[in-house]
Amino acid sequence: MIQKTLTVVLMTVLISLVSACGDKGDIGVKPPQPSTGSPVVPKTKKEEQKEKIKEEAKKAQSVTVDTRTIATRKFGGLYAEITGISGTIGTEHVVNFVERLSYLWHKKLDRKNVSEDAVREADKPIARFLAEPKKMTLKEFVAEADAQVSLVKKHLDTAQACRGYMLSDAECAMFRRLAQSVRGVYLVAYGMTELMPTTEGDLNVKVMEILLRNAGSNYLLTIPAMYDKMLSLGLYQFTSYAVNGVTKDGASKMNLFLPVEVRIPGSVIELQNGQHHRAAYLLALHNFALLAKQTNKKEFQALGKALKEKPGDIVTYMAVAHHAPRPAVASMRRWLAYNAKGPLNDHLRGGLKPYGEKSDNNLRSLGQVV
């Protein structure tokens, strides 16, 4: 009874206290107040990467670039973006190539639906370029490509490759001839076809020389591909369709027939220095195997003749097959059906035609300087 009475008294006192407080809020816990500032929104991975790249770009200094070889030309579009020079070209210009690379990767990341791989890896190319620009001449760059071609020729198990692609003896023999015909200058010509925006071979060669001497080979090998959403970069503009250690397609399929210590990495972002040339040659070999597999006896004869007399057309095939393998094979077969008379370009269709013209002009102009 006493306990019940005490409980009633305590409850009465508490009610009185609460009533006395009214709305003054002097007693009890105050309700949470609305914030007067803007809410903190977490940064997206893309925003973080863009800021990181921007900070990296601050670490480099500008250089004075001798542009007498292209003076009076007018640059816009991709030429301006990769050289850092726009408008009428003078005899020299001041360029910060790290800022250029930063700008290009920012533009890549701003693409609609850019891939998660591209976002995740976007800071690596600029860091690699900062660590080792590797300035050199165009002749030295071609020699580097030659060395990679020789390395693959020395170590590739062509017998295993022929079995892997299920080539007959005749097809395997043609594959070997095609493989042996490739030189470093062929790779660089088709790489220029991928990267450079016009069919002016002479201009493309001069721009290559300027970039290699003043920015370095690792500038060319870390430029992003601007017109797709994938993780893709470099002179050869490789994507995961070309280099992919998971699917083992393209260059990565031919890669299986090299000793482990000579193989390229399984992702485009992991390619470094001369490995880009090695990957380009492996991709060409992959496309040669596809061509040999689909070529009949009569076409073999025409192809053998073309290897001796028209090596430029073989380079054209390398370039267009890099871009679109199946249409490239169809174009080659049309050309071979006519006994390889005239240029291969006459048998290219649609978007392949500019590739063919650009490839021919690049190879011709490169041959005059290296």
The proportion of residues in beta strands is under 5%
What is the mean predicted local confidence, pLDDT?
Answer: 90
What is the helix tally? 18
What structural class is derived from the secondary structure elements? Answer: mainly alpha
- N-end to C-end Cα span: 111 Å
Rounded to an integer in angstroms, the radius of gyration calculated over CA atoms is: 31 Å
Shape: globular
The strands making up the biggest β-sheet line up spatially as 1-4
N-to-C series of helices and strands: HHEEHEEHHHHHHHHHEEHHHHHH
Q: How much helix is in the residues? A: 55-70%
Task: Note poorly predicted spans.
Answer: 1-30, 32-38
What's the total number of strands? 6
Q: Report on the biggest sheet.
A: 2 strands, antiparallel
Notable characteristics:
disordered N terminus, globular, mainly alpha, 370 residues, 18 helices, two-stranded antiparallel sheet, 58% helix, two-stranded antiparallel ribbon
Task: Summarize the structure in words.
With 370 residues, the chain is mostly helical. It contains 18 helices and 6 strands. The strands form 3 sheets. A two-stranded antiparallel ribbon has the order 1-4. It has a two-stranded antiparallel sheet with strand order 2-3. Strand 5 (243-244) and strand 6 (249-250) form a beta hairpin. The protein starts with a helix and ends with a helix.
